[in-house]
Amino acid sequence: MNELFGRMMAKATALTRNGQLGEATLAIQRALRGVQPGASTFTPATPATTAAPSLAPEHAGGHAKDAMVLDGYARVIDITDVTPAVDTESPPEVDVPQEERWIDGSFGHQGRKLAYKLFLPPCAAGVAADPRPMVVMLHGCTQDAADFAAGTRMHALARDLGVVVLYPEQGRHANPQRCWNWFKPQHQQRGRGEPAILAALVHAIAAEHQVDPDRVFIAGLSAGGAMAEIVGRCYPDVFAAVGVHSGLPAGSAKDVATALAVMRSGNAGASAAAVTGAVPPTIVFHGDADAIVHANNGAAIIDAARRANGLDASGVPPAREAEGRTPTGQSYTRTVYSDADGRAAAEYWQLHGAGHAWSGGDARGSYTDPSGVDASAEMLRFFLAHPRRRR
What we know:
About 30% of the residues lie in helices and about 20% in strands. The protein has helices at about 5-15, 20-35, 60-80, 145-150, 155-160, 195-210, 225-235, 255-265, 295-310, 375-385; strands at about 100-110, 110-120, 130-140, 165-170, 210-220, 240-245, 280-285, 320-325, 330-340, 345-350, 360, 370. Strands 1-2-4-3-5-6-7-10-9-8 form a 10-stranded mixed sheet, with helices on both faces. A two-stranded parallel sheet has the order 11-12. It is elongated and about 105 Å long.
């Protein structure tokens, strides 16, 4: 738009606002033709005969063109220069599906801090956001939340089931190797240490993201498995079921020396804060060739769960044992222990020939065995079958 055209259109705008539409039309015509104000305006010849008016003429003359331009320009003025009326009715809400989300967060409690990764599954459009289950995943030594998420793929399996997955991360300030301090008495009790901050974190996440309080579960690998076992026992009112992969029994060590001993042999040490009380339904995976944490530890966890839940009492169904082999060649023995109601309260997967690694995991994560039983899928199945029973 050149300077002359701009001045002439500005004048047309002013004339329109003053109600001088005829003069405004002439001003627009001049602007379109590049005519200075005061110059004569070309007027097309009037036809000898007047045709019937057409709503959509095939050939518009100069006046028709100018009228259309004026109408369009007037509409621009109306849109840009006039305050729109306020609509008292709210526009209809449109249901938009919620995409899955990852949240990187930090949480503090009792002077301690934990970083975490949180996976929120997608929510379909038009579907009410009902409270959802949540699985808490505790990594092993030298791992972090991202590594453990990549290796276990728990969130990928949970996505289609609408399950929230929380990956807390141990800091190097708490343990140089990022191990959960399962072997220290101050981290083996309700209301203290790492069990306390993990339970508080779960409460905070559950309140903020509509988590079903009766379907919160916890699992872990190695040191993370040992801490999952401790936390599950300390907070049976929070965690409905526990999953332990290549871990150790709660309260089996009281310091580094006893921790190393129980890792080597599986003979439980005497912890000053030995955990007692209720044991949530528990699923255990352990390789019988594990050279880091002896397989006796997996058996000890199951034995404790059986005793605590009366699974050895008379009238309880006998254990069901089955042998199997994965398509990739991993052989296993699966033993299920049911309560008097026939509900599986403990499940033990002995992975024959397997070492210290998450069975069926993704090779992109550390400490994984892609050829093994899909431990993540089996844990998720077990968890969802065990909502917390309110007493």
